[in-house]
Predict the 3D structure of the following.
Amino acid sequence: MAWPITMKAATILISQGDTTYTKEKPWHGRSGGGLCDLDAKVLMGVVQGYEVPPWGRRGVYVSHQAVLRFLRSQHEQRDDNGRIGSNRFQLSPSPT
């Protein structure tokens, strides 16, 4: 993580599948940083990068749904017979 931590406004344009696009590109050096909804206290995405002209200028993030899917996959438990049991954690659905 780069210091100091920064907070910049970001306008979500669209979220499709595993990718969320914002109007603003992420601040320099923020790859892997969070796209957070501070009011809802929710991680909405993770910085991947940004588009460059002529293709666009949007910020590109791993989507909220992709993050939830990854977290669920990391918390599956298997019993002694190798069967998947219930998740240890309850993950909230997207607030949007």
